[in-house]
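Fold this sequence, please.
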Amino acid sequence: MLRSNECTRAAGGMRPTLVVAAVLANLVVGAAVNAMPVQAPQSSPQAPQSSPQAPSEPKQEVPFPLRFGLRSQALAQKQSVVNQVVLVPDGATFLDEIQQWTIDRRWPVLIEDDHLTPIFLQAFGTERVFRRPSVGDMPPVEARHAAIERAAVQTWTPDAVTMKDALAARGVPSIGVVLYDPADAAWPAAVALAAGRGQVLVPLAGNWGAPNDQLDPGQTTALCDAVRDAVAATGLMWNGLGDDVDAVTICRSMAGKGTPGERVEFASPFGPARRNEPIATTDALCRIAEGRTPRRWAIAGWIFGSESRSAYAAMCSLFLAQKTAWLNDCPAYPSNAGARLYEVGEATSLLGKAGFSAQTIRFVPGGLTSWRQRAAAGWSPDLEFINSMGNLDTFTILNDQDTGVREIPAITRPMGLHMIHSFSLAAPESPICVGARWLDHGVFAYVGSVHEPMLNAFVPPPLVAQRLALGVPLLVAGRWLEGEGDRCWRVQTIGDPLWTPSPGLLRGALLPAQSREGLIDLKLAAVDAIKSMDAAPTGANALAAMRCVSRVGRPALSGRVWENAMKAGVAKESAPAALTPLFLWGNLDAVAQAIELIEHPTLNQLDLLWTLAAAPLEAGQVSNRATIETLVRHPRVPRAWHDMATVRPNAIRVMGNDAYVALNRSVLLSLDADERAGVLAHLK
């Protein structure tokens, strides 16, 4: 992205166009703003010859974003939610538990894991948590679609055959289609969103690449055609906004980027892209050409990843309420009219009036310190807006100072994210990609960019906030939807396109928990498991106790179980299960103990350690030698130099120079040649 003075020159002479009138008029989306173009630092400026033009006046009385939001909310507000969460061990049991839902009674179902499950439970704040034993294996792939479809149908109209028939029998119009591959791990999100939202469920076969990939022009066209054909084959009205199919959710692996080619649908608001430069797949999908005019016929969202992560994303979207919002301005933006349209102050005010506890966060010189302090105290917004500059692996929170991807904090609550930043989703499965780290930490809905988009490709935060305040889903609020600004470009939308952030629960009555045969109440199980561990302290008993206690939303109790297991010398087996609750407890020494007992900690596990450690290390406040040694031994790879630089001054103070140098040398020798070279280059 361009640095400040370059941005100012590029934006000079442009008049920003953003009509801020009555609320409904704003909802119509307006034009792409003639704001400052922003470029990646390594690229030469590519400012368009002309800026996107203002759209014509809206023809409909009620704008599409509002109608879309009202449609998505109408059903949710009629559906009661049972105040419980059911944890299952595998996909087959997840499918069986979804079938226990009915048209008017449903509850969160998670495929249990040691990281995402505790943060979801903390946010949901449920009365009861139950666990189910496994019901066996999933059907073979060739029979899986029938089983998945049957599960969704069962929740609506048990004697129907397809979701389309089930919805018709209930007299409920479809609002969207969920496309998935029964062989892909993201199928749990598909069945949950079809059943939970009342959407038609359609298989989408084929090899469409992996999330970090970029499809060539032929493949891009083929994928868009395959999605269109799959939706058209349902017999639903699909080819315009406001008909039967306004949302298309892709629940499967695919390339996050496409290459535009020559089709009208892929025409950009900024003129032809450089050869082989990408567009966002979710922006390329659901478009149609009328002569030489392209238009959008639906909003696309995308969920990918493991079974547990995809189930988590769907349950966050269906069941969580949002209370807090953080909005971060970028001090590196120039002070001109175009850039000022993207300041978050007005957005903060609008969200506050809508019932959010909203705050603007501006980082000043020394801002990295306060960023790290916030992370150590708990990165806890339900919704976050970040204005930034940078690249795939860096972001800017200070004027003219890039911050590395390793500063992306582990979060303490599931979060939706609107991030104005080039390249943040360029490689959503890469350990050095900004967006990938947010997603891995538990962000379940994300508006970002796959490449340099120009600032005015994004809808300004005040307009996004205004739409959210009126019940427009985030992924819809983050699109222009009319005029030149809505041509196919680089803004990616990850998550459920029907998710509407709201401080009020967009659902019907909250009903008491309902136990039934085969469900294990984890509060009762936790009491028994703690007693068993106290009576016979073994690794298996410690793991059983931690797996129960960590699921009931009381991190301090998990801490006490951990302390007892450590004293008894039986904590090793339970260390992976203990990490997230110990992180939520905010105890750095305990998290370091758990990391030390895990033979090969994952990057996500190490992120928990370093999120808690960075601020006190910078302040020289880590005095526990064992914790310091764990930090020295466990820098995150790739980019190990970042953590090694962070820990070094505090480590020398605690360990002494000779002991630190000896331990650091052994760590260096364990790294591969490229990593060692990076460390030596940064720590001369």
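The longest helix spans residues 141-156. The chain has 27 helices and 23 strands.
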